[in-house]
Every structure is written in C-alpha cells, then in structure tokens.
Amino acid sequence: MKAQSLEMMIQYIENLQVHMIAGNLTKVKPNWQKKPSLEPFNRLYFILEGEGRIKIDETVYTPLPGQLFIMPSGTRHSYSTISDDTYLKFWCHFTATIGEMDLFKAIHVPHFLDVQEKQKTAKQFNMLIDLYHSDQLSAPIKIKSILFDFISQFIEQSVLKTDFSSVHNINTVLKYIDQHLSEKIKVETLAELANLHPNYFMHYFKSILGLSPIAFINQKKMKQAQYLLQNTDQTIAEVAEQVGLDIYYFSKIFKRFTGFSPTKYRQMNREP
C-alpha cells in the first residue's frame, strides 16, 4: 500500500462498524445451491469437512476443510454441491461498514485463508452462535470482538483497491486536520479544501468516515491530548492549547471521550 492511502485507510478502519445478521453450524443438504446474485451482506464460511463449489465474480473455488472463506457484499457469488460428501461448515452473515461505505469496497481481501489454529477458529464460531442467541447484555460487544478478529485476519492480507482514489479529496482534508490540530478548525475551511458546499461536505464526510467533521476532529484532538498527558510534563492548560481548545471546553470533551478528567487520566497512566 502507498503510505498516504495506508494512513487514510487506518483512519477509516478506526470507525468500522460490524453487525451480525445470522449464523450457525450446518451440514448442507445434497440440493445446496444458489444462483449468482448480489447480496447486501458478507458471507463467512469455515469449512470443517466435505466438498463443494463456490464462485465469486468470475473465480471458481472448491473450498477445503480448514479454510475460512469470505464472500464480500457487492460481489456476484453462487455455490453448489459437487458430490454426496456435502459440507459441514460454520457460517455467518454480517455487515462491515465505515459510514455508508462497505469495508470490502474500499479494500481487496483474499477470498480465503488457510486457518492455522483450526480448534481456536471452531471455538470462536461456536461462541459467536451462542452469543447471537444469548440475552446477555455483553453479547453484542463479544460478537463484535469475534467478528473484528476474523476481519483482521483478512485485512492483514489485504491491498487497497484502485477505486479507493474516488475519495481522494478527503485525503487532503485529513492531512489538513492532522497539521492543524492546535487550531480551531472550521468546517467551511475543510469544505473548501474538498471543493464542496459546506452542507454537502458534512454529509459526504460522515458517509465515508462514519463521524461528522466536528466529531472526527474532536476524536483526533483527544487522542493527541492523551499522548501529551502520558508522555510530557505539560500542564493541562498547555495540553488544551496544543489541541486548540480553551481549558474548560477541553476538560469537558476529554472527560466525555475517556470517562476521566485530564488530571485523573494523567495520574492513572503514570502510576507504577
């Protein structure tokens, strides 16, 4: 990946949202078959045994036991049996979005991985299915954690798609934000950099990054403040100045962002 594109994608992934739609462990029937179609969600298969056929766009696969397959949303895919030895597989349908953009439209991942820790992956799928049917308050968080782990395995083997440049004007905006965190950044200035009307720019920015421009800027400012509080001896007032905020507003946003006052945060992160 090019450095600029990689940096931008990392900022996108920070705002990744995932949602599980369905999942189970299934021994597919001899008539298991699906005609080519586009789906608004991603399919994830972990093959345990058997054989079959999957076609993603123009590529045909015969997944093997121990392989983790993904069929990204927006791809034309189909599947079918090829013998009486049908698949026993874990499966999960889920969405992965950044703002209004599907993750796998921004990056290209391999369609399958050869799983090294098969028992661990099977255990994760079992947990995923149990959690999906659970009424535990923490279940949605645990589900996201497992899905993030699966997605990360594919992302580690990913490359940016060439059409990622379609949002290149946002890159200019992100660079400007990084270079001017110590200032009060106006949405109008960012919109001008993107050559967009401010009202449309706010919708456009949120559709790509999943946050409004102000929320994104404050997130960046608070991360910079966390670093300064942990790694420098600057006073709270000096840290606030470094991120372009008056001390009262800074303390208010910082506590909302971290759950702690700047003073308490510094104390907690400097304890031996």
UniProtKB/TrEMBL annotation:
HTH araC/xylS-type domain boundaries: 171-268
Top-level taxon of the source organism: Bacteria
PROSITE patterns for this protein: HTH_ARAC_FAMILY_1, HTH_ARAC_FAMILY_2
Keywords: DNA-binding, Transcription, Transcription regulation
Alphabetical list of InterPro entries matching this protein: AraC-bd, Homeodomain-like_sf, HTH-like, HTH_AraC, HTH_AraC-typ_CS, RmlC-like_jellyroll
Name recorded for this polypeptide: HTH-type transcriptional regulator YisR
Originating organism: Lederbergia ruris
